[in-house]
Amino acid sequence: EDQVTQSPEALRLQEGESSSLNCSYTVSGLRGLFWYRQDPGKGPEFLFTLYSAGEEKEKERLKATLTKKESFLHITAPKPEDSATYLCAVRGQNYIPTFGRGTSLIVHP
Amino acid sequence: GAVVSQHPSWVICKSGTSVKIECRSLDFQATTMFWYRQFPKQSLMLMATSNEGSKATYEQGVEKDKFLINHASLTLSTLTVTSAHPEDSSFYICSASPGTTFETQYFGPGTRLLVL
Q1: Measured between alpha carbons, how far is B61 from A85 in angstroms, rounded to an integer?
Q2: Which tens digit of pLDDT belongs to each residue from B79-88?
Q3: Torsion angle, CA of A37/A43/A49/A53, rounded to 10 degrees?
Q4: For residue range B44-75, what is the model confidence (pLDDT) as tens digits?
């Protein structure tokens, strides 16, 4: 059974204070690891897809990295508008996506 | 960018009634649509995958007779929660893909269902 565990559950940062969110996973035959941003009461917004260990992707203040067991979402010099819940999901050889519970990020001005 | 809408955004109903939720792709043709359910502080759970013109594929543990999915056109899919009960109260989110893969899905804003 595919599993995704995200940590921490909640994170409070000061504006400009860089940090990382963790997504640990077990999956049979990784077909993709996905990061999404979800604002309260809204659907997820796609951020990144990573397919193989060593792969990295960047978008503005966000950078996602992938190893064989986990992925990190690094947030550099965050701003209050980065406050959201960040979701990680994996898709294995059964092609059914498994989502983590998310990390709720609050960035204080 | 690709836009997906859901209607209604909020619905409150009495136990035993049926509720229909619409999911529309506004600026692209959605070959595949996905329906998810999200309980508070829980993960997003895939309920079913639907392809236009064919029957939906339901995930294990999802009752197909309770959650009726219709994907009658390339821009519209509907989820009907039949004989809703309080335990069906949840946040229902659809996503749509112009292809057949999970990778290119665009999520709708979600529908919050409260069954009294």
Answers
A1: 27
A2: 999 999 999 9
A3: 60
A4: 999 999 988 888 999 999 999 999 999 889 99
User: B107 vs A45: CB contact, 8 Å cut-off?
Assistant: yes
Does B102 contact A at CB distance below 8 Å? yes
In this complex, the residue of A4, A43, A91 whose CB is nearest that of residue B93 is: A43
Place of tokens 């390339």: B74
CB-based contact A43 B45, cutoff 8 Å: no
Question: How far apart (Å, rounded) are the C-alpha atoms in residues B112 and B116?
Answer: 13
Give the H or E element holding residue B26.
Answer: none
Closest CA to A102 of A24, A31, A6: A6
Q: What amino acid occupies position B103?
A: E
A44 contacts in B (CB within 8 Å)? 44, 93, 107
Burial of B94: CB neighbours in 10 Å, binned 0-12, 13-18, 19+: buried
